[in-house]
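> run fold Arylsulfatase
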Amino acid sequence: MDDMGYGDLSCYGAVNYRTPNIDKMASEGIRFTNFLAAQAVCSASRVALLTGCYPNRVGISGALMTYSKNGINANETTIAEMLKQKGYATGIFGKWHLGYQKQFLPLQHGFDEYVGLPYSNDMWPVNFDGTPAQPNQNKFVYPVLLLIQNNDKKEEIKTLDDQAKLTTLYTEKAVEFIRKNKKSPFFLYLPHSMPHVPIAVSDKFKGKSQQGLYADLMMEIDWSVGEIMKTLKENGLDKNTLVIFTSDNGPWLNFGNHAGSSGGLREGKGTSFEGGQRVPCIMRWKGITPEGVVCNQLASTIDILPTIARISGTKLPNQKIDGVDISSLLEGYLGESPRKIFYYYYRKNSLEAVRMGNWKLVFEHKGRSYMNQLPGNDGFAGNAPEDVLTPMALYDLRRDPSEQYDVQKLYPEIIAELQKIAEEAREDLGDDLTNRKGKNVRASGLVE
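> ok
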């Protein structure tokens, strides 16, 4: 999902609407409570998921724009390319956002077929109220939003009504792909464009939640998951398919009633606090994952690639990756902790925090904050200043998941240990906050 928060599913505490299909998936698999997106922003998060690397290792930062000249490097190995070693059919239906020029599109990076948007659904010349942008308005600079099929334009997305069709379209394409490839191994990547703003819902769910448009949309997303699970079962694939459900980052909170919930975690999208990077994750593999289990161990989207490599018997990429194999957790060994540390990078290459187990050391930095700001409503943004100074602080996330109580003075020995971890990160990947160049970073692809 795109910008779906930790508190947006009923099995994670959402109120006044339900997500029964996703809840059922959780009851039949593992629900992770300490699962982190690699970075709290679109392009960086997505390249990390597909390559098993921190995004700054592969030269991608932030959200690539319609004028960006860079994208995913051809030298990086995606999950799709890795699985082609074993003859997997590969398809993606939804948002890509790793470069819109042909050399960066999915078919050049291991996917057999693609239908979707090349970047975020708000990068278009239309205001949040659905009116065309005028020359004096920010969105006027964007080109017409294109729906891409494989490498070419399929159609133009011009209105909110056009956007309302996307969730259903992606779902139908995914169902068709499953049916077509049911007799061979396949990898299906379904990155929905929503609930990223602007949100739009098909007629079959509009007004059905009695909780507003965002909850209507969550019901439609839940329907989409239900369609995928139903198709797997109908085609005899239910017991031989690992299904992973997660989000690219936390909610864009200044959009108010068109944004999700961080579930009580601090801040949201675009920050290195838990509300920005801790996301729902459910993994279900009938007969392998224990049913109805909660896993509190630290894990991340960068761990998906090496886990799939282990399960499928494929070779890992030749270049260094950052993910670790968490298949032991999927098999029910919940006392194990494959991931010990995590680096919270943001902006171009700023190491804003490091984590060791439940300890998190936040470094002094300036960044986005939603705190004490009045959110917008009905698709319009409230204020979210980007230059708020965050002081250095130590948090014990076991006792304080909302990151409210700085315990630096109590645990100097923990700080010393976390500082060593930070130094290792800076040497390896660099750090703009301390003007360090990393030894093992790679360039993104550039337009030829």
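The mean pLDDT is 97.
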